[in-house]
Amino acid sequence: MAPMNYTRHFIFLLALGFYACGGSDIDPTTATVDATDQETNPAAEGFDAEGSDARAIAIADSVVARHGGRQAYDDARYISWNFFGARDLVWDKEEERVRIEVPKDELIYLLDYSGGDELTGAVRKEGTEMTDPDSIQIYLQSANSMFINDSYWLVQPFKLKDSGVTLKYVGEETDPQKSRPSEVIELTFKEVGDTPGNRYRIFVDKENYRFNTWQFFRAAADSTASLETPWNGYQQYDGIWLSGDRGGRFQLGNIAVTDEMDDAVFTQF
Length: 269
What we know:
five-stranded antiparallel sheet; disordered N terminus
């Protein structure tokens, strides 16, 4: 099972705006959103604003503010992390490049999204660079799915207003993992990603507007979540707040956000 996988180009539809890191002027208990607040956390092209609840949008904007702000996230150049102990990823957000290493399978993927709809890159398997174009594309598409999935586990708080997303306000509930008062919002998806029928329910802490828990529903109509994990271990990384502890074996380790990195990381095996 893997959570909702966005198609690759949605990841990079990040509009620039400014948010002060200290907090938000949004009152998430109201049903309206101040225009200034929307400008500081602009939605990606294709976000379903018309179908979304204003209150849920306000909460989403508060979430971004409490995670460091849209500007800090957009300015974060390189993000690296380990996914569940299985693979290491390095993401160059500015140049739209990704390196994925899967030690168990002796695989290294170099992905380049800068060409728009055309995904290019290179693959090394068991110490040898692959040369067959068809095989390379198959492996690159597999790596693309890894990246989309793995990055969503890490940076979903900044992706609540992505293309194809519809936000609904559920109400106030007690977080099932931490027993904290939470504002609950739901995400559904319109014709985006590998699995557009998924649904997420997010428990947002009423005090700090960070995630307490997320629930993943394989089908939007499902009444029981397929997966539920906490969002623990928040730390600040170069101005943005990220959580790596999803409980038990679901750990995102070695998280780092940096401004500088050797270009060879994305061009050489």
